Amino acid sequence: MDDDDGELRNPFPSPPSHYTKYTSHNLALLALYNQRLPEHPNPVQHHVLSDQTDVPEWPLTQLEKPRIDWILEEPDASYEVFGDRWFVKDKIPSLAELGGNQLYPADPSVDRRPALLSILRSLLVTYSSLTSSVLAPPLPMSATEAPEWQRHVEWITVLGQNLMAAANDLRPVQARGNLELMMRRQLDLRRDETKTLHVKCDVLEAKLKDLRSSAQVISKFGSLLDKDADMADLTASPHISALSFATLMSVG
């Protein structure tokens, strides 16, 4: 038994000994057993699966998945992992539940600020009294009562515990606030990135518009050059014909 407890608390425990029972054959027998059970008068496993082979001696119902709904129905729903108990609904215990002296309201719907301000003022006053008591001469050895500074230290400890417990109760609120702030930062970042992309797109669109205008001007200029070249060819063609005729006559 001690070995089992030690194995459960091991950070890297071995698989449970019954994991070898989860074979394909046994799981098929379990499915067949659950299918035949409502129609069979005798719920005994061997009678229901009398036509099957290699039916195990142990009950096949051990292979059923755990009923989580049974756990949730319990008032303090919990489960155990590696020997440690974990609650389904995580709840931060209050200072009173931990055995401390709680000086602020336990109900979270009640405004705790007046109580916390009173605790803070009491802490400052007690600290001032502590400095005064420390400067006082020590009690004689025959004194039976506790020194004054010890009472102040104990009370400061109680006040500090209340401040820390109240701060821990505000952690969910702080977590929600941090999450909201992070989401807003991500939203602002995406808006800035989108704005930058729009600016880049506008710049590229303007450059493309300039290039398109330049291409149109170049195409018009090329058309004018082609027309001028055609006109030059037409103008030069009679001279070429006369020159060719004169050359032929001289040769003849």
TrEMBL record:
Tell me yes or no: is Phosphoprotein among this UniProt entry's keywords.
no
**Record localization:** Nucleus
- Matching InterPro entries: Med7/Med21-like, Mediatior_Med7, Mediatior_Med7_sf
Name any one GO molecular function: transcription coregulator activity
**GO CC terms for this protein?**
core mediator complex; mediator complex
Q: Which GO terms describe its biological process?
A: regulation of transcription by RNA polymerase II
Keywords attached to this Swiss-Prot or TrEMBL record, sorted alphabetically, are: Activator, Nucleus, Transcription, Transcription regulation
Q: What is its main location?
A: nucleus
Q: Which residues form a coiled coil?
A: none
Q: What Gene3D superfamilies does the record tag this protein with?
A: 6.10.140.1520, 6.10.140.200
User: Which top-level group of life is the source organism from?
Assistant: Eukaryota
Give the function comment from the record: Component of the Mediator complex, a coactivator involved in the regulated transcription of nearly all RNA polymerase II-dependent genes. Mediator functions as a bridge to convey information from gene-specific regulatory proteins to the basal RNA polymerase II transcription machinery.
Per the record, the similarity remark reads: Belongs to the Mediator complex subunit 7 family.
UniProt subunit comment: Component of the Mediator complex.
Q: What is this protein called?
A: Mediator of RNA polymerase II transcription subunit 7
